[in-house]
Design brief:
By secondary structure, the chain is an alpha+beta fold. The chain contains 3 helices and 5 strands.
């Protein structure tokens, strides 16, 4: 169980490679009743092209990882308030 106060008002993101994957992830999360949004992220200097992310509340991190893994959706990286983990 996560510490709810620790992640209160904290936003996490699952960074995807394409808009299509981000939309698939959002649809899978919606089916699991996890609120999320899709945003376009600024690409790192080493990456080319667009980078999309799915944003969600950090207290749902474990659930999001489980749902996306079950749906077979690959995530490039995970971030919490601009920190990559």
């Amino acid at each position: 169980m996560t510490d709810r106060k620790r992640y209160q008002n904290t936003s996490c993101s699952a960074v995807m490679g394409t808009l299509t994957n981000a939309q698939k992830a959002q649809k899978a999360l919606a089916a699991a009743a996890i609120p999320s949004s899709v945003t376009k992220s600024e690409p790192a200097s080493s990456r080319r092209g667009c980078v999309w992310s799915v944003n969600f509340s950090c207290n749902q991190s474990e659930n999001v990882r489980s749902v996306l893994a079950s749906a077979g959706i690959n995530v490039r990286s995970w971030s919490m308030d601009n920190d990559i983990f």
